Amino acid sequence: LLQTDVKWPLGWPVGGYPGPQGPYYCGAGADKSFGRDISDAHYKACLYAGINISGTNGEVMPGQWEFQVGPSVGIEAGDHIWCARYLLERITEQAGVVLTLDPKPIEGDWNGAGCHTNYSTLAMREEGGFEVIKKAILNLSLRHTEHISAYGEGNERRLTGKHETASINQFSWGVANRGCSIRVGRDTEREGKGYLEDRRPASNMDPYTVTGLLAETTILWEPTLEAEALAAQKLALNV
Predict the structure, then answer these.
(1) Are 215 and 162 members of one domain?
(2) What are the pLDDT digits (tens) for 65-102?
(3) Structural domain tally of the chain?
(4) Is there a single domain that holds both residue 142 and residue 92?
(5) 233 φ, ψ to 5°?
(6) Out of 1-10, 124-133, 183-192, 219-228, which region has the weakest mean confidence (pLDDT)?
(7) Domain range for residue 158?
(8) Is the domain of 24 the same as that of 71?
């Protein structure tokens, strides 16, 4: 959220900077939370419109907010995200605040803005699903370049390997690791089934493109046996 006249984050002193990151994530209080009225109004509007919104929170960088859509099935995820974005544009317009979906709105030691995408198939959620998830991660590693090229404009400014991101040039995965390309939750590892989180998409991504690519790579696309074996060895994946 940006101040209209100066295009500087809401709550930041004009021409200056707030205190360093730390207290703003999910924070409360007038000195930590800037724009909650807009976030709450957007949440209520989405509920009224029938959008499958499931949460919202203040982000690591002050003046930055996140909302979550889902769980959704198939192409419905894209429908709901685009409608939610439109409602947010209208609400910020009424509030006299500028909305930006830029993945790195402020350069320097500030977190960027992603659109982390939680994804699963029925097989991933059933018994033995963790093995299916690991196979999907392997496929995603082999098509990293194709995915990155479609995951949002300006994403190279965000995916630097710092500020809770993985490097845009190197695919990685891990359990409960916020600095990886693909994160698997502790619950998924413990229960042996669940979902994966693709942390690479930028906040300005096209949800139809991202969800379509995820389905294509993990369901329809098959690598050669040689490429699969090399990737499995590199990523320490036993599939």
Answers:
(1) yes
(2) 999 999 999 999 999 999 999 999 999 999 999 999 99
(3) 2
(4) no
(5) -65, -45
(6) 219-228
(7) 117-235
(8) yes
Does 147 fall in a domain? yes
Whole-angstrom Cα distance, residue 182 to residue 185?
10
CA angle 89, 105, 156 (to 5 degrees): 115
Helices 36-49 and 76-95: crossing angle in degrees, nearest 10, is 130
Render pLDDT for 186-232 as a digit per residue (tens, 0 to 9).
999 999 999 999 999 999 999 999 999 999 999 999 988 888 888 88
Residue 185's identity, in one-letter code, is G
Is there a domain that residue 112 lies in? no
Residue found under tokens 């939750």: 185
Report the distance separating Cα 45 and Cα 50, nearest Å.
9
Residue 91, amino acid: I
Q: Torsions phi, psi of 6, nearest 5?
A: -115, -5
The reply to whether the predicted model has a pTM over 0.90 is: yes
Are residues 140 and 189 located together in one domain of the fold?
yes
Residue 237 reports pLDDT greater than 80: no
Number of H helices, E strands in the chain: 8, 8
Those residues with Cβ within 8 angstroms of residue 123's Cβ, 6 or more apart along the chain or in another chain: 129, 132
Same domain? 121 vs 230: yes
Read off the pLDDT of residues 157-182 as tens digits, 9 standing for 90 and up.
999 999 999 999 999 999 999 999 99
